[in-house]
Amino acid sequence: MLRLRLWGTKSDTDTIKKDDYNYNSTSIDMSMDSKVILESKNLSVRYSSKYAIKDVNIKIPRNSVTAIIGPSGCGKSTLIRCFNRMNDLLNANVEGQVLLNGVDIYSTDNVVEVRRLVGMVFQKPNPFPMSIYENVAFGLRINGFKGNISEQVEWALREAALWEEVKDRLRDNAYSLSGGQQQRLCIARALAVKPEVLLMDEPTASLDPIASTKIEQLITRLKDKLTIVIITHNIQQAARISDYVGVMMVDDNLTGRLIEFGPTRDVFENPKSKITEDYISGRFG
Fold first, then answer.
1. For 254, which DSSP code?
2. 46: helix, coil or strand?
């Protein structure tokens, strides 16, 4: 059962082969389970007879920012949706394992708890049609939080660097906020229930540069408290904010594969795969 936590306690035309995969960089010591919070083992996702991703093996270090990069259609979103079972909503067939603190999240029926422990923020801000306060309090209520909800709402808004901007208008509709503020509100909503991992699917794609910078600064600060996995098409953003990078590509069958994973500097400055080198240098993608 999933452990529950109580409140308050080469070139672009090359065929991808197994030798192209770099799951375990020599500069990362993953031998100790305590350093890994999230891990996939031979993870594949199939829609009917078509595989979207196949045989993905990745270890996400605790209290780090891991960026998943790659061209459109290579399975990045499909991969991270496996990490909190969002693919369940799409009738996908998931094969392999996803381990959170060593426990397979697909071995439990308590999907609500899985999604509390592994929160998610999407590309387009999606606040609920209710007040700023109630947006943050929503997850607390449905998860049966027994503490002081107002204190937890304030804490989450402070963590999301939004409190000073909204503290005098908590009863205003969330739609009255700017796009960047709405995205930080969604982050606060996810943080309120104290997740251990936060998944972010292109969280700055629809924001202006100033709002994007605030989100990037927030991500860098939050990794002291939780683990972040972010999808981005912005290679410069991945270089700026991530500690580790996973590179995904499609094979000859248009199936997503993880072709390289390692510390960001190693992947960008000394990629093991020619395909990775071509992608990050802008030769294709």
1. S
2. strand
